[in-house]
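Q: I have 378 residues here and want to know how they pack in 3D. Can you give me a structure?
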Amino acid sequence: MFELSEEHTMIRDMARDFARGEIMPGAAERDKTHRFPAEIVAQLGELGFMGMFVDPDYGGAGMDVLAYVIALEEICYADAGVGVIMSVNNSLVCWPLMTFGSHEQKLKYLAPLASGEKLGAYALTEPEAGSDAGAQKTRVFKDGDDYVLDGTKMWITNGPQAETIVTYANLDVAERHRGVCAFIVEHDYAGFAVGKVEEKLGIACSGTSELVYTDMRVPAENMILNEREGFKVAMATLDGGRIGIAAQALGIAQRAFDLAVSYAKERHTFGKPIASKQAIQWMIADMACRIESARLMTHKAAVLKGEGKRASRACSMAKLLASETANFCADKALQIHGGYGYSKEYEVERLFRDARITTLYEGTSEIQRLVIARSYLA
């Protein structure tokens, strides 16, 4: 992708105007107070950004994955915490429901999620099942017309606020991934509880928590696909989630770059702007090259995913490249700002903290390297 279509350009511009006009002004305050941006989420829903690739028949915007990536980068440029709320709702909740859900499940759940009326979460990670997603210890058994779940999920983005949760449980933990089932859980089910709410290094306005299931009954019609097919749902969903985090990382990286360029032109030492120094110029050049490379890889992954082609390698490449680019650019932007960059009065300090998570969730950089390498060596 070298040039955006007219439609994609319009989506980018709409997202950019909203992000910089409505999201960016309150970003520092939300970072300080950790206040969940409920009103912004509702506005994102009104604009069609909470269910971007949900079919219009089910209340969504009916856009492609590339449009989603372009819009999400702009939202994250303003506030990566707001962006990850949007990303989870789209990539990890709406996408698996749209792709694997029954007609009845789509009718019931997608429209409220796409409109921003309700918020979604994705509950896969457990205390002993992070990178090893097949090691699900949350148990499930059939009881009449219901399934009963017992277990604890952790690090769940949107967990404290979500009303609709795509979650996973195991019929037989000894069978690992072969026993995993996927379910749609509602937050008001008996036995559902929000556990510990995490205090995080960055993306502070997005809620992250444990979810605890205690003899929680889930109607059989809320199973996604069939028994023992949950791992298939989980792995396919994570591809899209990785594209979302790549877009988030791009937004952080681009913002760090823009702030670094602006500061380098304004800051003077020894009678000249620091932009005239070769050391600064080389940092700027390296940042620019990495951002452009990561953006091209992310757009390629989005197109492949949107066309239904094999995209796991491309998604992992995009996530790895973009997340490490975000950390590189945030680090260099802080270095260019010098001591000022270490102060909370300057935005680069927040970007430095926000960038760090991108190499961890939706699969660490190490897991992405494994996926990429194995795709060539298999």
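Q: Anything worth noting?
A: The chain has three domains: 6-118, 121-228, 231-377. The first helix runs from residue 6 to 23.
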